Amino acid sequence: MKTMGDLLGGLRQFSSMDCTREAASEILGQGVREVSVHARSNEESVVLIRLEREIFLEVRYYLNPGLLGTYDDCEFGIRLATDLRSLVRYNVFYSPYIHGQGYMRIALGEVDNPLMKKVLDEFYLPRLKAVYKPLILRFKGFFSRDYFGIEAGTDRAQLYYSSVRARREEMDADLLEVVARLNDLEALLSEGEVRHKLAELDMQMSVLPSVIWI
User: Residue 177's pLDDT is what?
Assistant: First the structure.
């Protein structure tokens, strides 16, 4: 498989098989460590395929009869697990171009406590942006609207590439280049200075009074 579109085609073929690890290995042509199927509803199912080197494919199959046999019945995302953790859940990504200019976006996890939300918006968010701002251009994709991002929380963190769907430019992205960019970003986020700044920000949040976290 050369392109992300080739991989999308293979995953569509996989949906007609028995969704086992052996079937996934046959389709993908590489070592598959685990396959798990999650039924979401009568209209959608999600299959998580864990590959070697902690690369994951999150595949969504749309079960609407009108979509069967079309490329619109499937989309997937490719992710790379990293050992980064964060006390505050966040998603940082390079937003698609607007007026010829790309920019960084950060989405924080939902918070019910008004005081905690104020602390996150006024204290945490500006400092998190300051850490990622020098790095964010590395997160842009290969075309005008594709991009890379990172989701981090207390239990896991993953780098990801924008979802691949039919008739989207991501289909033309070179598969090896996407994986290489994910690995480059993981190495970038493992650098001592970056980890130190993120760990320091986490420590500052951890000393907040417990009532704020409730």
Answer: 97
pLDDT tens digits, residue range 147-191? 999 999 999 999 999 999 999 999 999 999 999 999 999 999 998
Q: Give the predicted TM-score (pTM) of the model.
A: 0.90
* Residue 64 vs residues 48, 70, 102: alpha-carbon distances, Å: 20, 11, 35
Query: Looking at per-residue confidence, does 150 or 144 come out higher?
Result: 150
Tokens of residue 75, six digits: 């989309």
Instruction: Tell me if 6 sits within 8 A of 175, measured CB to CB.
Output: yes
Closest CA to 141 of 10, 28, 4, 1: 4
